[in-house]
């Protein structure tokens, strides 16, 4: 079992499912938001007990998730149709405080026509680029290969691109896409001369790839491009796209940061 798979394991008990906030996936001063998002998604999928796939997840990060703590999960079906289910999943501390609140859309997808509007930017092969590890223990297990926007300081443009790969050998799936959707520097860093206090308030991930397209990635790199929308009055927006090496749009994501 890979480190990440172990960190995303849920254990069933008398009080429901419980996750262990593995310190190996701590960020700068709390658990990595990608871990929290992936745990909420796994809790939902296990509660659903069907073949529906994730289409979207939105997580509100309510309180700090303490590394080394037990995190209880609670999921309930809010509403459904023949093809779509809406779920609400809560992550709770041992004393019952809400740590994160997630809404999840699961769907039974059907073959239809379609289109993809954007195209993946041209980028050098990741193996030709320098390595960068994000801060915190979780960064030891994730490798970024920056293409543009690094270092993210003193820039008029908040756009950045990079390859990213989770290094423990776990094949990419929807959980891992949710995990990697948080692997970006906060956009306030870009117009500032250095790091500054920042935290994610909420994050949405929209899953576009088919199950076969996700499986085809294996444990390879994913190409990520992010752009800030606006930062003002202590909040900053960001939207991003995640691509496979072959140019398949796997997922898109939106974030809102608090900063000072």
Describe the 3D structure.
- The chain is mainly beta.
- It contains four helices and twelve strands; from the N terminus they run H-E-E-H-E-E-E-E-E-E-H-E-H-E-E-E.
- The protein has helices spanning 3-7, 33-48, 174-180, 211-217; strands spanning 10-13, 16-20, 53-61, 70-80, 84-92, 98-107, 142-148, 160-166, 198-207, 222-232, 235-244, 249-259.
- The mean pLDDT is 95.
How many domains? The number is: 1
How far is the first residue's CA from the last residue's CA?
A: 40 Å
What amount of the residues lies in strands? 35-45%
Gyration radius (Cα, Å) is 18 Å
Summarize model confidence as the mean pLDDT: 95
SSE series: HEEHEEEEEEHEHEEE
Strand order of the biggest β-sheet: 1-2-4-5-6-3-9-12-11-10-8-7
| Poorly predicted runs | none
Total DSSP helices:
4
Helix content: 10-25%
What fold name goes in the CATH topology slot?
A: Porin
What class do helices, strands and sheet pairing give?
mainly beta
Q: Give the CATH H-level superfamily.
A: Acyl-CoA thioesterase, double hotdog domain
What characterizes the major β-sheet?
A: 12 strands, antiparallel
Q: What sort of overall outline do the alpha carbons produce when their principal axes are compared?
A: globular
CATH C-level class? Mainly Beta
Shape-level CATH architecture:
Beta Barrel
Q: How many strand units?
A: 12
Short description:
The protein has helices at residues 3-7, 33-48, 174-180, 211-217; strands at residues 10-13, 16-20, 53-61, 70-80, 84-92, 98-107, 142-148, 160-166, 198-207, 222-232, 235-244, 249-259. The protein has 260 residues and is mainly beta.
């Amino acid at each position: 079992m890979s480190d990440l798979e172990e960190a995303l394991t849920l254990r069933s008990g008398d009080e429901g499912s419980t996750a262990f906030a593995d310190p190996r996936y701590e960020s700068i001063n709390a658990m990595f938001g990608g871990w929290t998002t992936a745990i909420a998604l796994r809790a939902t999928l296990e509660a659903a007990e069907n073949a529906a796939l994730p289409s979207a997840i939105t997580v509100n990060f309510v309180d700090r998730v303490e590394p080394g703590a037990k995190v209880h999960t609670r999921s309930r079906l809010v509403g459904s149709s023949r093809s779509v289910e809406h779920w609400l999943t809560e992550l709770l501390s041992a004393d019952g405080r809400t740590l994160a609140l997630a809404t999840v859309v699961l769907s039974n997808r059907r073959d239809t026509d379609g289109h993809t509007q954007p195209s993946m930017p041209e980028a050098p092969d990741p193996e030709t680029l320098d390595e960068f590890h994000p801060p915190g223990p979780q960064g030891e297990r994730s490798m970024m290969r920056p293409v543009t926007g690094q270092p993210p300081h003193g820039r008029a443009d908040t756009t950045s691109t990079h390859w990213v790969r989770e290094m423990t050998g776990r094949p990419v799936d929807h959980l891992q896409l949710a995990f990697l959707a948080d692997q970006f520097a906060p956009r306030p860093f870009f117009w500032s001369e250095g790091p500054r206090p920042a935290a994610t308030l909420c994050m949405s991930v929209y899953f576009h790839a088919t199950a076969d397209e996700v499986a085809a990635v294996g444990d390879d790199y994913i190409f990520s491009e992010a752009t800030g929308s606006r930062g003002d009055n202590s909040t900053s927006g960001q939207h991003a796209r995640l691509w496979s090496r072959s140019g398949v749009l796997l997922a898109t994501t939106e974030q809102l940061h608090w900063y000072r």
